[in-house]
Amino acid sequence: METLLSIFLGIGLSAACGFRVFIPLMIVSVASLSGHLILAPGLEWIGTYPALAAFGIASMVEIFSYHIPIIDNLLDTLAVPAATIAGTIVMASAVSEMSPLLRWSLAVIVGGGIAGMVQGLTSITRLASTAATGGFANPIVSTAEAGGSVAMSVIAISLPVVAFISVIGIIWFAFVKLYRRLFREKAFNT
User: Fold this and answer.
1) Which of 30, 38, 71, 160 is most buried (CB neighbours < 10 A)?
2) CA gyration radius for the chain?
3) 118 close to 20: Cβ distance less than 8 angstroms
4) Nearest Cα to 148, choosing from 61, 58, 24, 8?
5) Measuring CA to CA, which residue among 75, 67, 64 is closest to residue 136?
C-alpha cells in the first residue's frame, strides 16, 4: 500500500512539473527538509539547503519569465524537455521502496510521460491564448499554471490519492476537449 501511495505521490508531483518545472522540486525540497517526505536513495540531495536555494531562485526566475509576452512562448519550447526531466526526477525521488531498475523505469515512463503531457497541454493553452488575445491574457494563464503547480505539489505530498485522481481528471478533460474540437472540425469540413 505504501508503494502505491508513493507512486500516486510521484504522479501528482510529475504533473505539477508539467505546469512549472522548478516549483515542485522546491516544494519537494521543503517537504524533505521539514521531515514530511523521505526521498529515495541517491536523490537525498534534493532535500538540502543548497538545492532548496537553487530551486527557489529558479522558480522565481521561471515565474517572472512566463509573465513576459513572447518570452513565455519561447520558454514553452524549452519547458517540454525540462518538465520531462523534472517529472522523471520527482517520480524517482518519491518511489523509494523499489529496485532501482523498476524505480527508474517507472520514473522515465510514467513520471516523465505525465510531466511532458501536462506541459504539452499547457503549451497548447498558451498558444490558444496568444492567438485569441494577442498575448495579453498570457500572464493570467501563467499565473494559473504557477498556482496549479503549487496546488498540485502540496496536494500530492499531503493527499497523494486526491492528486492521482486530479491528474486523471485533468488528462481526461484535456483529451475530451481536444477530441471534441477535432471531431467538430472534421464534421464541419465534410
Assistant:
1) 160
2) 17
3) no
4) 24
5) 67
DSSP labels, 32-62? HHTTS-PPPTT-GGGGSHHHHHHHHHHHHHH
Q: Cell match 499531503: residue?
A: 158
Query: From CA 171, how far away is CA 151, in angstroms rounded?
Result: 16
- In the chain the first and final C-alpha atoms are separated, in Å, by 51
**Which amino acid type is present at position 123?**
S
* CA–CA distance, 86 with 18 (Å, rounded to integer): 9
Closest CA to 118 of 155, 154, 86: 86
**Residue whose C-alpha cell is 492567438:** 131
Cα dihedral 57, 167, 43, 49 sign: positive
- pLDDT, tens digit only, all 190 positions of the chain: 788 999 999 999 999 999 999 999 999 999 999 999 999 999 999 999 999 999 999 999 999 999 887 888 788 888 899 999 999 999 999 998 889 999 999 999 999 999 999 999 888 888 888 889 888 888 999 999 999 999 999 999 999 999 999 999 998 998 888 788 777 766 556 5
| Cα separations in angstroms, 67 against 105, 134, 135, 164, 180 | 35, 14, 10, 29, 30
Looking up cell 498556482, which residue turns up? 147
